[in-house]
Write a structure and sequence with these properties.
The protein contains 5 helices and 2 strands. The chain is mainly α and 67 residues long. It is globular and about 35 Å long. 13% of the residues are buried.
Amino acid sequence: MKTRLRELRARDRLNQTELAKLAKISRQTISLIEREEYIPSLLIAKRLANIFNEPIESIFIFEEEEL
């Protein structure tokens, strides 16, 4: 799964700690998601989508072979 999280965070000038507080998760979780080493739950994905005012599927992009 690809993610645009780092790009959106930079766009909105948020550091990992700030974003983590807004999403009510740890900074380490943000880091893992950005490195594409962790797939967030639907709840976390929805929180992140709401923070950036983007649809979930524009932040998290699944490759065809993953489906």
